[in-house]
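Re: folding output
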Amino acid sequence: MYADTSVFGGVFDDEFSGPSKAFIEAVRAGKFILITSELVRQEIEAAPQVVRQLFEEMLPVAEIATVVAEALQLQWAYLNAGIVSERSATDALHVALATVSGASMIVSWNFRHIVNFERIPKYNAVNKLHGYNDIAIYSPLEVVDHEDEDI
C-alpha cells in the first residue's frame, strides 16, 4: 500500500488521527506492506517534528519508490488527460509513483485530487492505456479494522 504525506500527518490531526494511527499500527503489525516515496520524504521535510519523526520510524518497514522516468511520464499522462491541473501535479505524481511501483492501493486523506470518486476511474483508465494495472484508492478509514467498534 502506498501512503502519501497526508497519512503521516493525519496521525497528529484531530480529525484524522484515529484511522491514521490504526493504519500505522496495521503496517507495524505486518498487515500491510508500506510503500512510500522520495516525494513523500521531500514533503515531510516541511512538516512538524513529530510527523518527520514518525516517518523516520516507519522507514525500516517501508519500500521507498523513487521518481523514475516512467512515473514522470505517467504523471504527465494524467495531467494531459485533465484528471488534475498542473497546480496539482504533485498529487498526480503520488498516483503515478504508487502505480509504477506496483502498489495495489493508495491510502490518502486528499479527497480533492486523489481519493475522489470522479478521478479514480480516470486515473485507472490512463493506467490501462499505458499498460499498468488498476490501483485502488481509499482513505485510511476505509482500510483499517473496525471489528471492535459498534456500527
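--- second protein (sequence, then structure) ---
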Amino acid sequence: MNATSPAIFRANQGASELLNYSQPLLLLAARFYVAWVFFASGLTKIEDWETTLFLFELEYAVPLISPALAAWLGTAGELIFPVLLTFGLFGRVGALGLTAVNIVAVISLSEIAPAALTLHYLWGVLLLGVVAFGPGKLSVDNFIGAEK
C-alpha cells in the first residue's frame, strides 16, 4: 500500500460524512418539489372540473375504471398525497400514493412527449428515494417517532 492510500480513504470518509449530513435536506427538497408538482396539478383539475371530466373521458385512457371515477381518484390523490409528503406525515404512504398516480398518468396518456416522460421518470425516482429511505429527519414521522 502506498502513502496516498490512507489520504484517499480519509477524503472518501469525509465526503461520505458530509453527504450523510445533507441527506435530510435533500430528502426534504425532493419531497417539496414532487409534492408541489402534483398538488399544482390537482388544483388545476378542481379549478375547472368540467374540463377535467372532459379530459378524462376523451384524452386520458385510465384502464379498468370509469372516466368520472378516475377523475375523482386522480384529483384526490394529487391533493391528499402531496400534503402527506410535504409534512412527512406517513411519508412513505404519500410517496407510494404519488408513485401510483404517476404510473397511472404515464399509462393513461396514449401520446406523451419525451420531455414529459423524462419528468415523470424523475418524479418517480425521487418518490422511490422517499419510499426507500423514508421522509428523513426533517419530517413529522421522525418527530413523532414513526421513522426509527
